[in-house]
């Protein structure tokens, strides 16, 4: 989501919040009510199809015994054209004659119910909601069950707020774009740089949000955004409203589209949002190949497609993609857009129909997708108290269990980057007092990142540390910009007088955010100087904690022998201070892994943000992106993370070869399956292989060699037999979280499917299986699998 761009429709206040001009577009009235145990009290405007409403109870679209598609068609048949047009925008109008209230489609739940978007209102019985760590932080847990559980809790609170009239049921989350460039201000919202990790996160969180309702019912409707190849906000004079992302078929298929495909196929998401940018010269919200053919056609979306806010207006007003606004409206609807966040379709669709650019039936198809989702949510089933989840209310928001989950998520997402000489964990009995220093040392709101709501409460790092030992505090810098060194002397003084020093440094939303891409990877302002001076002055161990969404080049600290340990906390949510302290003092054994590469500052000089290519280009010196293609120096690699204990792995069961048989009708045409100039060894198309019997099982024993219980993340990568700049160095196949007590071991079953895991994408966007020796990296182990055509093995 983002700022509206059309000055004719919107204005901005001083905080850059979006405000709808009442004189141009009438907003939906949110009715505030009092609730008891989640049940709406008398006096509220009736919900659609309320049995008490004699006006509608006999209408067919209100009958829950009739199939949803029949109900939808009945309702559409009762609507006038002007009513239909005003129902395909985010603040849909009321239709009083049919008992239908106005509805605001735009709510957000990226890592908790958010106050971004007009669909959610905090206050009264709902003063706040559980604020989990920012997505990049929970992604570092590499824990699918955690992501699902966070989604389940967030949707409990969302449903409770809906029952109380404080929220809608359509939440435009998660953001599953690939964190391609380390400068991207919104990288914090994403699960990181790897397509497999992002895909698993997307499916898990969506499933948690939407629930497992019988009969295709939805608890809430999630939305995966921003489709596609969207990861530039405002860099070097180029903004997302004008950016044309030039993307190869290869990169689209094996990188940018992967999380969205998983959202639809695995997560069964109810919505996908198209983005502001163009892809190869076409606005995504006006591209039928992307929307109608791919999302709805190939992947089979059962839901609606929504624009990022005022995207249709953007490609008309800013990108000048069409001659007239009516053509812009028609292009969006014909491409497969169902809902416009913004007023553009409400204003121009009628004229587009009168001019013959689209038909009323085209509009009906879009409206049917919207109404179907609303009916799956139960929004046309009357009073919610009689429906599933209707008992949820204020008592189900900010519960102790929910807040404990937020704390556990923060603990699991924290990454131990350095621990020289096993300096951590600190002992509260040996370390009697600690200097706590840094611009992020006593922050609260900073910890929840962006697209957050109103937290239930906060524990700052200083507060968390103070629960273990006596603390002396000095910020050192007034804010993360750290524009001067006036407070450095005071910080050095307390570092000299205490048994240990904890520096909490990093970024906040003034440095990285929506509309703000970073200009560099170093700590802002004079933060590095503060860290170095305090470290030099400190008489005890020095712990550097980095709070950020994106990677930070902390090479200076990594190479400074006076800095004992480095921790990345991401944006750890409302309980972040407790989680940080628990890791530092050993209550929690860290198990997080980096979901993105930490590059040196020098990397940026070779990589303009506008180049979307994942693969390197030796002729231009372009080094490629992410661990999959970039071979140069890094500060910390993708997947890096230390523990207070030691783990070892051993292979117990490991197949060494597998034969691939062709589909029966293709065996006679085998030679036609080989050709692909970029695949240097022989390969076959996945679509030509008989994939059903190509699953292999590996058994891996993980042993805890140390004296402390711990959680180990087993990362499984593959390296294909083909070489060259177009091919991945390695790629993540799967990951497995396992808890291992000190001195014991646990067996992990790792499944590898040849078609899914060992295939690669060629330059035409076609997935192929290379023949030859594939190298698996299972934790610290390497194992080779020979993949051959069946008759080659038989011969």
UniProtKB/TrEMBL annotation:
<dbReference type="GO" id="GO:0009044">
    <property type="term" value="F:xylan 1,4-beta-xylosidase activity"/>
</dbReference>
<dbReference type="InterPro" id="IPR044993">
    <property type="entry name" value="BXL"/>
</dbReference>
<protein>
    <submittedName>
        <fullName>Beta-D-xylosidase 1</fullName>
        <ecNumber>3.2.1.37</ecNumber>
    </submittedName>
</protein>
<dbReference type="InterPro" id="IPR013783">
    <property type="entry name" value="Ig-like_fold"/>
</dbReference>
<feature type="domain" description="Fibronectin type III-like">
    <location>
        <begin position="712"/>
        <end position="782"/>
    </location>
</feature>
<dbReference type="InterPro" id="IPR017853">
    <property type="entry name" value="GH"/>
</dbReference>
<dbReference type="InterPro" id="IPR036881">
    <property type="entry name" value="Glyco_hydro_3_C_sf"/>
</dbReference>
<dbReference type="Pfam" id="PF01915">
    <property type="entry name" value="Glyco_hydro_3_C"/>
</dbReference>
<keyword id="KW-0732">Signal</keyword>
<dbReference type="Pfam" id="PF14310">
    <property type="entry name" value="Fn3-like"/>
</dbReference>
<dbReference type="InterPro" id="IPR002772">
    <property type="entry name" value="Glyco_hydro_3_C"/>
</dbReference>
<dbReference type="InterPro" id="IPR036962">
    <property type="entry name" value="Glyco_hydro_3_N_sf"/>
</dbReference>
<dbReference type="InterPro" id="IPR001764">
    <property type="entry name" value="Glyco_hydro_3_N"/>
</dbReference>
<keyword id="KW-0378">Hydrolase</keyword>
<dbReference type="Pfam" id="PF00933">
    <property type="entry name" value="Glyco_hydro_3"/>
</dbReference>
<keyword id="KW-0326">Glycosidase</keyword>
<dbReference type="InterPro" id="IPR026891">
    <property type="entry name" value="Fn3-like"/>
</dbReference>
């Amino acid at each position: 989501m983002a700022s509206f761009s059309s000055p004719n429709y919107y204005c901005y206040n001083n905080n850059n919040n979006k405000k709808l001009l009442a004189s141009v577009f009438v907003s939906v009235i949110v009715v505030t009510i009092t609730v008891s145990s989640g049940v709406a009290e008398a006096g509220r405007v009736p919900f659609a199809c309320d049995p008490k409403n004699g006006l509608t109870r006999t209408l067919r679209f209100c009958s829950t015994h009739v199939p949803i598609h029949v109900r939808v068609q009945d309702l559409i048949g009762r609507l006038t054209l002007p009513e239909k047009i005003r129902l395909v925008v985010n603040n849909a109008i009321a239709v009083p004659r049919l008992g239908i209230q106005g509805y605001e489609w735009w709510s957000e739940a990226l890592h908790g119910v958010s106050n971004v978007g007009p669909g959610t209102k905090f206050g009264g019985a709902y003063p706040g909601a559980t604020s989990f760590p920012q997505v990049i932080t929970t992604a570092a847990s590499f824990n699918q069950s955690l992501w699902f559980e966070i989604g389940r809790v967030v949707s409990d609170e969302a449903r409770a707020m809906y029952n109380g009239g404080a929220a809608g049921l359509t939440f435009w989350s998660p953001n599953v774009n690939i964190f391609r460039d380390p400068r991207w201000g919104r990288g914090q919202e994403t699960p990181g740089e790897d397509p497999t990790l992002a895909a698993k996160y997307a499916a898990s969180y969506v499933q948690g949000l939407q629930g497992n309702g019988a009969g295709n019912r939805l608890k809430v409707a999630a939305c995966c955004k921003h489709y596609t190849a969207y990861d530039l906000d405002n860099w070097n004079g180029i903004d997302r409203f004008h950016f044309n992302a030039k993307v190869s078929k290869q990169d689209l298929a094996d990188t940018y589209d992967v999380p969205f495909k998983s959202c639809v196929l695995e997560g069964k998401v109810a919505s996908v949002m198209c983005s502001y940018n163009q892809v190869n010269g076409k606005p995504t919200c006006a591209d039928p190949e992307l929307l109608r053919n791919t999302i709805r056609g190939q992947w089979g979306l059962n839901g609606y497609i929504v624009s990022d806010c005022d995207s249709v207006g953007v490609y008309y007003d800013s990108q000048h993609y069409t001659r007239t606004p009516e053509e812009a409206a028609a292009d969006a609807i014909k491409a497969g857009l169902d809902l416009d966040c913004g007023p553009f379709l409400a204003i121009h669709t009628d004229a587009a129909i009168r001019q013959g650019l689209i038909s009323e039936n085209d509009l009906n198809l879009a409206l049917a997708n919207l109404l179907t989702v609303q009916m799956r949510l139960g929004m046309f089933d009357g009073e919610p108290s009689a429906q599933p989840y209707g008992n949820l209310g204020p008592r189900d928001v900010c519960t102790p269990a929910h807040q404990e989950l937020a704390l556990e998520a923060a603990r699991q997402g924290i990454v131990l980057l350095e621990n020289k000489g096993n300096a951590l964990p600190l002992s509260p009995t040996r370390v009697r007092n600690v200097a706590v220093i840094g611009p992020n040392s006593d922050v609260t709101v900073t910890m929840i990142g962006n697209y957050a709501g109103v937290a239930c409460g906060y524990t700052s790092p200083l507060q968390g540390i103070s629960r273990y030992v006596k603390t002396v505090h000095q910020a050192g810098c007034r804010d993360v910009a750290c524009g001067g060194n006036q407070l450095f002397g005071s910080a050095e003084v307390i570092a000299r007088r205490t048994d240990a020093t904890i520096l909490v440094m990093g970024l906040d939303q003034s440095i990285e955010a929506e509309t703000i891409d970073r200009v560099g990877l170093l700590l802002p302002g004079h933060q590095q100087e503060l860290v170095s001076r305090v470290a030099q002055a400190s008489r005890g161990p020095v712990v550097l904690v980095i709070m950020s969404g994106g990677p930070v080049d902390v090479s200076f600290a990594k190479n400074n022998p006076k800095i004992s340990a480095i921790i990345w906390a991401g944006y750890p949510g409302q309980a972040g201070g407790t989680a940080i302290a628990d890791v530092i003092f050993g209550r929690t054994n860290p198990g997080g892994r980096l979901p993105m590469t930490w590059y040196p500052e020098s990397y940026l000089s070779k990589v303009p943000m506008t180049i979307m290519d994942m693969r390197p280009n030796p002729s231009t010196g372009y080094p490629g992106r992410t661990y999959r293609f970039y071979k140069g120096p890094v500060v910390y690699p993708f997947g890096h993370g230390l523990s207070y204990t030691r783990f070892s792995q051993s292979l117990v069961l490991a197949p060494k070869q597998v034969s691939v048989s062709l589909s029966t009708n293709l065996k006679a045409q085998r030679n036609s399956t080989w050709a692909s100039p970029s695949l240097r060894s022989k390969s076959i198309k996945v679509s030509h292989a008989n994939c059903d019997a190509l699953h292999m099982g590996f058994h891996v024993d993980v042993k805890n060699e140390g004296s402390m219980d711990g959680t180990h993340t087993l990362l499984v990568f593959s390296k294909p037999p083909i070489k060259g700049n177009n091919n991945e160095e390695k790629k993540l196949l799967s990951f497995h979280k396992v808890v291992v007590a000190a001195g014991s071991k646990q067996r992990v079953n790792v499944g590898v499917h040849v078609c899914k895991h060992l295939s690669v994408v060629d330059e035409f966007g076609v997935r192929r299986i290379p023949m030859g020796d594939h190298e698996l990296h299972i934790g610290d182990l390497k194992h080779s699998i020979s993949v051959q055509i069946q008759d080659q093995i038989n011969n």
